Amino acid sequence: MARPNRSRTSSSRSRSRSVSGRSKIVWGGLVGAMTAVGGVLLLLDGRPLGRSDGLSVPPLMASSAGALDMDGIFSRLKTLEKGRWKAIVIHHSGAPTGNPATITADHKKLGLNGLGHHFVIGNGSGGMDDGELQVGYRWREQYPGAHAGGPKGDWYNQNALSICLVGNGDRQGFTKAQMARLAQLTSALCRQLGIAPDREHVVLHSQIAPTTDPGASFNDRWLRQTLAETN
């Protein structure tokens, strides 16, 4: 009986180990490449990671006070209907704490499909940072609001943007960070959309409806002065 050729067997084992080693290198490269692509996709996606605010329709972006570039609320829109937006209405949520999810829940109880405001500014209580801005789907999709009452409520819902401050302005004033973000956002909207920053076009809800909203403690004088200086 012929004996097996040891050199041939050894050569086969070497080739096998070599192929196995190359396979590991190839698979390792594929996994690395897929991991890198996944990281790039997460960066391109642009969604805030690690945040869960319970909104039925996620906001466009979330940011702590002072960190949001206002240009971002325009650059991320698919389309911008400049001609349709003719005014801005300022509201409060009516509760000392809250966030877009809690306000959305309240609005759904009223029969709305979701958040009735275009923008919400937090006060640091209820899940949002102080001065944090949440941009709602009504702005992202350029949908009408569902926020205004009074004789001309329908017109304001169709043609005016809504900014809601978390808090109850009848009980206490709003924070400095909230007011600063409100002025920053309002000023940017006025400039980009061609809305005059005066009392006729930037209105409190109490100016157009039988309500105290956004409350007796709202510092309207400061807002008017700031808008005049920045526009």
Account of the protein in words:
The protein is of the alpha/beta class. The protein folds into two domains: 1-45; 62-230, Lysozyme-like, CATH 3.40.80. It contains eight helices and six strands; from the N terminus they run αβαβαββααβαβαα. It has a six-stranded mixed sheet with strand order 1-4-3-5-2-6. Helix 6 (176-193) crosses helix 8. The protein is globular, with a radius of gyration of 28 Å. 29% of the residues are buried.
Number of helices: 8
Specify the overall morphology: globular
| Mean pLDDT reading | 75
Which CATH top level class of the largest domain fits? Alpha Beta
Q: Between the first and last Cα atoms, what is the distance in angstroms?
A: 101 Å
* Strands side by side in the biggest sheet: 1-4-3-5-2-6
N-to-C series of helices and strands: HEHEHEEHHEHEHH
Number of domains: 2
Main sheet overview: 6 strands, mixed
Shape-level CATH architecture of the largest domain:
3-Layer(aba) Sandwich
Helix content: 40-55%
Share of residues in strands: 5-15%
DSSP E strands, number: 6
CATH topology of the largest domain: Lysozyme-like
Derived structural class: alpha/beta
Rg estimate, integer Å = 28 Å
Q: Identify the quaternary structure here.
A: single chain
CATH superfamily of the largest domain: Peptidoglycan recognition protein-like
Query: Unreliable segments (pLDDT under 50, ≥5 consecutive)?
Result: 1-67
